[in-house]
């Protein structure tokens, strides 16, 4: 007789469908999960009104404004800011990332050389003037928006009130990019991660420049074949060195200066333009002093007039945007018909088919 104790029967409970070595779902459990995911996607597809509750701490949609803040409607942004530098050129455009954590370009890079003055775009308050992450930065609050510019050595301090065209700093050395530029960003107050394209704020339109290959070695002298342009010496002043007391502010284009009779005539014309199009004439450039022309010549080379010869240096020429700067637009046609009534003409050399077509360039010939 075998007296050895036999092992008692083992209770056979089902083993969990999970690998004890890898910690991965067993095939059946994995399949079940996939079926559930497919079913959820199907419900979302056929039920547009269905909402999904996110787990605590996870975003279920786009971020909401901070308490007490209302996001400005995109169409409500200003369009009359003046250019931060004369005759701005965009070296790199606005290219925001799809998500905040991805790389992208949350502003624009404007050509500007070290030492060049940076101007306030509109009336506002200096929000910050200092260094961020090793880069000199100036930011200005303008209404519901904030504009920042880097690399810029500030000539203002935090809290300063500024007006359109007010110098707020100079381009630092080294500049933001190797070829010489500043980086410009714009966002709604209180929502810094929601950067927007700065260019529509300036209302400069698509300034047309001759392709580099078509540019002349030097700009030709302005021909006097029309006999109508009044852009030339006056009052015993030198080009680009006209004292501020001899110039007047353009009321419909803050930050711009002209000879006083030209400024008054332009404002009358701009009011008439606003009755037709709903907004004043967009101005990108007006009186340009000698030092500014020196920098512009360095920056644009053969595309800019030699210092002391630019018609802008007499306070009798303006560069216009908002559609006037493109041949054939309704705005440009309006200027052709109505500009001379107010003493403003499109010189023959700048007309379509002229020696140097510039749809945007207009001069005061007198009433």
From TrEMBL:
Residues 256-366 form the D-alanyl-D-alanine carboxypeptidase-like core domain. The keyword ATP-binding does not apply. Pfam families: Peptidase_M23, VanY. GO terms for molecular function: peptidase activity. Gene3D superfamilies: 3.30.1380.10, Glucose Permease (Domain IIA) (2.70.70.10). It comes from the Bacteria. Residues 104-192 form the M23ase beta-sheet core domain. The keyword Hydrolase applies. Signal peptide: none annotated. Keywords: Hydrolase. GO terms for biological process: proteolysis. Residues 8-22 have a biased composition (Low complexity). Residues 1-22 are annotated as: Disordered. PANTHER family: D-ALANYL-D-ALANINE CARBOXYPEPTIDASE, PEPTIDOGLYCAN L-ALANYL-D-GLUTAMATE ENDOPEPTIDASE CWLK. This is Murein DD-endopeptidase MepM and murein hydrolase activator NlpD, contain LysM domain. It comes from Brevibacterium jeotgali.
């Amino acid at each position: 007789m075998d007296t050895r104790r036999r092992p008692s029967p083992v209770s056979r409970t089902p083993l969990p469908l999970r690998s004890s070595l890898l910690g991965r779902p067993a095939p059946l459990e994995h399949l079940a999960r996939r079926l559930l995911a497919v079913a959820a996607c199907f419900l979302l597809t056929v039920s547009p009104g269905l909402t999904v509750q996110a787990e605590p701490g996870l975003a279920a949609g786009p971020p909401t404004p901070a308490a007490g803040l209302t996001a400005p409607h995109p169409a409500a942004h200003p369009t009359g800011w003046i250019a931060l530098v004369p005759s701005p050129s965009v070296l790199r455009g606005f290219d925001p990332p799809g998500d905040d954590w991805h790389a992208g370009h949350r502003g624009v890079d404007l050509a500007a050389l070290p030492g060049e003055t940076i101007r306030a775009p509109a009336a506002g308050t200096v929000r910050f003037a200092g260094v961020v992450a090793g880069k000199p930065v100036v930011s200005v609050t303008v209404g519901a928006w904030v504009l920042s510019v880097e690399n810029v050595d500030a000539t203002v301090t935090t809290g300063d009130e500024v007006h359109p065209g007010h110098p707020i700093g100079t381009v630092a050395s080294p500049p933001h990019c190797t070829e010489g530029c500043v980086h410009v960003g714009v966002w709604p107050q209180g929502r810094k991660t929601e950067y927007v394209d700065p260019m529509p704020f300036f209302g400069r339109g698509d300034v047309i420049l001759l392709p580099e290959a078509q540019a002349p070695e030097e700009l030709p002298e302005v021909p006097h074949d029309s006999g109508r342009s009044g852009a030339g010496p006056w009052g015993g002043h030198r080009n680009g060195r006209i004292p501020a007391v001899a110039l007047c502010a353009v009321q419909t284009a803050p930050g711009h200066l002209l000879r006083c009779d030209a400024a008054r005539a332009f404002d009358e014309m701009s009011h008439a333009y606003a009755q037709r199009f709903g907004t004043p004439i967009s101005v990108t450039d007006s009186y340009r002093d000698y030092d500014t022309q020196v920098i512009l010549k360095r920056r644009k080379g053969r595309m800019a007039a030699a210092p002391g010869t630019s018609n802008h240096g007499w306070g009798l020429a303006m560069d216009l945007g908002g559609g006037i700067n493109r041949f054939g637009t309704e705005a440009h046609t309006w200027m052709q018909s109505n500009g001379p009534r107010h003493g403003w003409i499109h010189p023959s050399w700048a007309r379509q088919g002229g020696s140097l077509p510039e749809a945007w360039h207009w001069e005061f010939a007198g009433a």
